[in-house]
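G., the chain you wanted modeled:
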Amino acid sequence: MGNSYAGQLKTTRFEEVLHNSIEASLRSNTLVPRPIFSQLYLEAEQQLSSLEGSSRVDNEEEEEEGDGGLEPSSLSNAYQLPPPPEGCCTTDGFCQAGKDLRLVSISNEPIEVPAGFLLVGAKSPSLPDHLLVCAVDKRFLPDDNGHNALLGFSGNCVGCGKKGFCYFTEFSNHINLKLTTQPKKQKHLKYYLIRNAQGALTKGPLICWKGSEFRSRQNSANTCSSSLFPLLEGSGSLAAFPSDPVPGTNSIVPVRAQQAGPASDHPSLTTVTGPAVFNGKDSPKHPQLVKNNLSALPRPSALGILPNSGPPKKRHKGWSPESPSAADGGFPQGGGNRAKHEGSGMSCIPQAGLVGSTSVTIPVVASGEPVSVPDNLLKICKAKPVIFKGHGNFPYLCGNLNDVVVSPLLYTCYQNSQSLSRAYEQHGASTVQPISQEMQLLLTVYYLVQLAADQVPLMEDLEQILLRSWRESHLTEIRQYQQAPPQPFPPAPSTAAPVTSAQLPWLAGLAASSCNDSVHVIECAYSLAEGLSEMFRLLIEGKLAKTNYVVIICACRNAAIDSCIAVTGKYQARILSESLLSPMEYQREVHYELVTGKVDSLGAFFSSLCPEGDIDILLDKFHQENQGHVSSSLTASSIKKTAMLDAGGVPVCASYHLEPRGVRPFQLAVAQKLLSHVCSIADSSTQNLDLGSFEKVDFLICIPPSEVTYQQTVFHVWHSGVLLELGLEKEPVTKQRVEQHVLKLDVEAQARFKAFLQNSFQNPHTLFILIHDHAHWDLVSSAVHNIYSQSDPSVGLVDRLLNCREVKEAPNIVTLHVTSFPYALQTQHTLISPYNEIHWPISYSNGVDLYHENKKYFGLAEFIDSTLSGHSLPLLRYDSSFEAMVTALGKRFPRLHSAVIRTFVLVQHYAAAMMAVSGLPQMKNHTSVETLEITQNLLNSPKQCPCGHGLMVLLRVPCSPLAAVAYERLAHVRARLALEEHFEIILGNPSSGITVGKHFVKQLKMWQKIEDAEWRPQTYLELEGLPCILIFSGMDPHGESLPRSLRYCDLRLINSSCLVRTALEQELGLAAYFVSDDIPLEKGTKNEALESDGEKLSSTDEDEEAGTEGCFEAGSTSEKRSPVKRERSRSHDSASSSRSSKASGSVLYGESLVQPLGPPQGELARSPPPCGPSEEGRTPGEMQRLRVSQGSTVISRNSPGLAPQPDCSLRTNRRSLQVPATPSSQLSSSGSSSTCAVPTANMLVLQASQCSMAKACRQPPVVFLPKLVYDMLLSTDSSGLPKAASLLPSPSVMWTSSFRPLLSKTMTSTEQSLYYRQWTVPRSSHMDYGNRAEGRVDSFHPRRLLLSGPPQIGKTGAYLQFLSILSRMLIRLTEVDVYDEEEINISLQEESDWHYLQLTDPWPDLELFQKMPFDYIIHDPKYEDASLICSHHQSIKSEGQGLGRWLNRGMSRKPEDLYMRRQTARMRLSKFAAYNTYHHCEQCHQYMGFHPHYQLYESTLHAFAFSYSMLGEEIQLHFIIPKSKEHHFVFSQPGGQLESMRLPLVTDKSYEHIKSPTFTPTTGRHEHGLFNLYHAMDGASHLHVLVVKEYEMAIYKKYWPNHIMLVLPSIFNSAGVGAAHFLIKELCYHNLELERSRQEELGIKPQDIWPFIVISDDSCVMWNAVDVDCAGEQSREFSWSERNISLKHIMQHIEASPNITHYALIGMRKWASKTQSSEVREPFSRCHVHDFIILNVDLTQNVQYNQNRFTCDDVDFNLRVHSAGLLLCRFNRFSVMKKQIAVGGHRSFHITSKVSDSSVVIVPSQYICAPDSKHTFLAAPAQLLLEKFLQYHSHRFFPLSLKNHSHPVLSVDCYLNLGPQISVCYVSSRPHSLNISCSDMAFSGLLLYLCDSFVGASFLKKFHFLKGATLCVICQDRNSLRQTVVRLELEDEWQFRLRDEFQTANAKEDRPLFFLTGRHI
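Predicted structure as tokens:
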């Protein structure tokens, strides 16, 4: 038969099944008995009795598909296919009749299916990607639970229609499966086929052979209600769970599954997380299967190990490492045939929301008989053994499967140890061998042997041991690999002989022999089944009571070994089995135990402990006795208080003050780092953030769904003032408005987030900062949410909101993740670039305090440091008596979860401590010293303060149901003890707010001076000073801050088995604290000691430890203690006082105890409790403490013996002997006032009682931890880093390899980030899983930042400060410094009889305007240092007040200070501003040439030549014209010779076009010049040409690729602005003529061609218009306002002026904030124009700019134009703003010496020298030297002219600046020029500059000069100088001397200018 098995039925087993079958048939309602053989072969073992009898998942026994070709162990030949019949079809995918059977081909064809048949899909090894369609009788298929499939086969071929195949072998041949192994229907019939909505046949759920899958197709909707992601994130550790509901698997350190092998496409290979156990290849592809395979059981089932105890079958060996199938399936090397999902251990994972796509099956191979797990195993052993599968084959288990747990983690670890060698082999290291199986096992035994009795094995530790061993054995190869380039090299000879399988058991036994039976080795002869049976036998017989680990080795089978390791130690087994629970399952398990009453037995046990009877009876008795008055013991000993009273008689506490809110230096530094990162994103060339386009900042803070965190964040935002600073709100800001900016990520978050996205879309000019606070919370992928959305809509919310496409693509949203634990965001797939991480800075670097703060942060590192020797009391402690009691109860109640036990014990301890402090001293024996210390200080602290301030105790209970139980119990005890008004008990639940009693609210309001009657505390910070126990629940803290009055942080109940770095650090982060930096913590003062119990200096009760388990080192029991370094402060173990010696557990636990010596217990019990917190002063050699007894007596004790004692037994006997000077009887007396003789030297006098708040600011809280966590934190690795730091960083990630370097203590946060980015990958449930970053930059999101810093350090304040400075910076980016200077020389303005009275005229009236006189005086403030120009209208009286002030200006100024002095105003950029190269926005991308269509290289160079007679040569200019601008030009042909620049017509009217071409000369301002006129022109079409020097062409082209460049000839490289103006004007006139001739041919008149051009400075930034409102036509009274407008508006207005072609120059005012109304009253002026001029090149054809000029060339040109009789018009109603630009322009000219080594500063007096002198020549143009010399030293040439305004210097045909104290009179020598009348003026000097032939002797004779007046003639050379003197007959009236000849200080080759001076005769 096709399904035959090569094995014999076992008679006993057969009889058992037969019996069960008959019995079941008799009981059954159905008529058909269940087939016996199917029970034996195809049905899983029925679940053994459990509480709810739910079914379990059994493992699929079949081998992984695709393993054909591997030999069965008992057969010598592989399976032989019978030869196919002659002539039939043998094509894969077709039947032998040639019909296509592939699902893809026939999915839409109608297929006849007989009644009772189902369509199924068969898998063929030769067609792995196809399913073959078959019709099979459903009786031969399993039911939904994998049961009741008949043996045999009945099927039809759907291709050819052949029916009646009775054997699967025959059928497989017919459909051409071509198998190489025995055909089995279980192996090859894989899937049911179903019709989808469209009627097409598709692949359905897996066929549930052997019950390994819950098929339940009909249950697809019944997804379980529990949360799913813990499982997905979980390690997927597989184990048989306890009989109580222990669903799922979360990754925790002791048994975390590492990823098998190197990272593959399915990283969760070893993470089976549910009953839906799919094939590794298929599961990720078929998410629909997930739904179909969710079990919908009523509650989690405790399913057992694969229980098929049928006869043993022939099995294949495991895949060889080379097997391609192993690689194909993505399985770890050698993992092919291991347990189908780790086989026998197939953790009966209950349904808690399991996702199939993460499930993977790893086949297991059974060998030999099944092993029966004994009944009552748990009852006898007191713990469930945890069995780790190791190498080889693992047998089936049957029987009582609920009492064992099986895990594949060790197997995975071993598999991973093979992966490193492969990594080396990829680089050519072909000889590196993996570590052998024997060596792996031996090292594991060594590791287990050295573990202490209270330590739990960690996979991380074992991995490191294997890694070190492998490294040492292959050191040579590794070195070669690391140093040399990859290449094959010969194997290095191995020095040590390898361990053989025969030696292994002997060596393992030898290793275990030294450990006192802690490790027991069992050697098997045949299979592991023997060893497991032996182990179970020994456990039942109690012979493994002292054994923690059993190692089972079977080394007989060929060379391979089989092994497994069982953890049988009660402590270790409990922790390891509980560690398999995900947080959700842990909560559910606890809830189940509470609901079902399982914990009642625990309560009953507690009641039986109390010798005086039940505690509740005692409480009731006490309540009745003390009814109506408060506990006497609390009031009797109240200390006399000396309290200050305020004015109202209310007591005042000096220690209580609210923290001043401000930004600390650290926060400011972090905010600035954040800002610089945002700027660097904006500055990068990727254009991902355009800061220049944003006008304001808005923000949304997303926080976890915790009401307290929400209120706390709202409070921070409200009080930071950030909303006002960002301009988002106006005063007063209400709380409701603040809440708009804080989003709690709960069910309602989606709607608000959608509104936020809508807001960001509608406001593109607002930069939105999306702050994700507490960012390590909820990293679940939204894909997971899609599957489980019905059960928990909040799953994956962060991913759905913050990672949605809208957020990623919005250019105005920057996401900032903020967290203290960034590790899960630092994986290989992270979205955050490592360059965008900001880490909190360290405070010290090389001993230097970088940021001085008056408070010191006290975090985890400091807490750990406090435990080192040399410190005072450690702040981290554990409670040994509590741990001992929990351990003992754990053994007594093995079925209860340890969290339940721990909680009940701790609550009992608190209850007993309250009773003890309240007057029932006998209860001290029922609590621990630690809890007593906490309770005493809690109750006594309010009495120490006049106001009643107390301390807070944080009691962390992660599990909410347990927290509720603890709250009810403690509240009940408090009520019975009448302590309701002494302290509050608060239940802190993330989902709800804080509830505080009215009495305490009243106190808080009084302390905080709050008047609001409705006020209630909403954050824990508002509980400052309130004596309270805060029971803090929730699986994770959500960022809640705690007040400074927190004194004790009780973390004894945290889930110590769930050890991942994030979980651990966030629990300890609750205690993080700021302490005042003025008092070092280690050096307390005598009366400012650490607060601790008067009885005890330590956290752990050594007395109890001695009582329960003996001393730490001298172990009086056989249990060994952790090798925690004992050089740490001895205070971990209590050196307790007489009253703390209690045998808390001597009678309780029935374990062997050492009875303490000392006073009898009765006497101890009667001693009074201390009243008030004790205080210890600490000096290096001694510790002193205070005891305040009932009589307020002060007792000082000297305790010299607190140092570690060598003799352990002595320590336990020192209980009452610690104070040798004080008799024991006095110490423990029950009398009320006992006076003690004490050494006076150590006497401490108690001062006026001190408020606990006084100590709060100097001391961090004391933290109590579980022992396991305490050891984890205090043990360090080789680099000195706590072991906790090297744990898996987060449950949602996994290591890429177990062989990775360790974290180092010296690593910075950045290096740690890079480490995690290299060595961790997200699990499939992680939101980053789909982002395959792998270091590629393009996978990072460009606008995503990560801020990480220690918990409670002030990150919220830092990012709020960041928002403020970002907003300020954006405002600053949108602001510009513009010159804001009043016009000068207003008082000297000509008083003319003529004014332009038409105040409302939009354009000048030509006739009126021509009558206006020209105003010669310069009013532009930039010419404040220039010479005044005289005209006949001006007052000649120099004594005029205004003139006197003008003449005295500039005397005290340094020449170079001009730029620095000028006044500026900061203006907000309008939407019509001109921009520099730093501006980017969407609108002007194309304009700037950053558009893809306009690449940098798409521009062409064109020469343009014209002749100019004055230069006497042809001028050749070059145009660089981008392709996009070629339409502005005329070419001879496309791409041919440039002919002209197109000009419009005067008559053209276009509202989207500016007619005048704009020319901007520029130098040195390629980045800062304002050449982007897109916004200024309001998008209008315009022609803009940059005029640049040849040597700057390339850099300007780079920055402005889409601008037209006019490149000046190289001879002008050192020229000034005059040359640029000259060439622009000449070019444009030449172009005008060309255009006239070109368009004349088109019939256009020459005068119709537009003659104007614009010459603009490169610093014109904005333009304004004045709106005037005249009261009446003739009235001079008017009002006006100024507004910003576009340049387009101004240009179109001016260009539309009537008669515009009659004006030669048109300009506008320079803007000033203090513009007088008189300046804008008249709309037009006839005066000088500057900076932005509209030039008529036609009218000014014969007026040239001076090409040599560097300064004042515009004044010079204006005077020439006016003297030529042309009109200059200034539009006073328009103004231009000029930006202050600190670089380039005229400042780019530097005058230096030509002698390179001369460092002497050159002053203007050195700019000229005598001809032929040996003066140092200067490297500067002669013209520049001349102008600068005359500006500063012209008084040397014109001494009479100094301050002589009535007698100016006559300047002919030019204006040169002679400095502010000399006036000039400009005259033109041209015929018919307009000049002022000089007939009545006597001049004090004459300046002749390069005068031409128009200047003649007769012309000069018209002017009169004072006697002694001076002359200065300037010429190009000495020869022309002489010729000029002769030609102008100067010697007639002027006297010259030889020494009066000068030259500029230039070398001859630089063509100096020559001067000749003379005196008037």
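The chain has a mean pLDDT of 77.

Shout if anything looks off.
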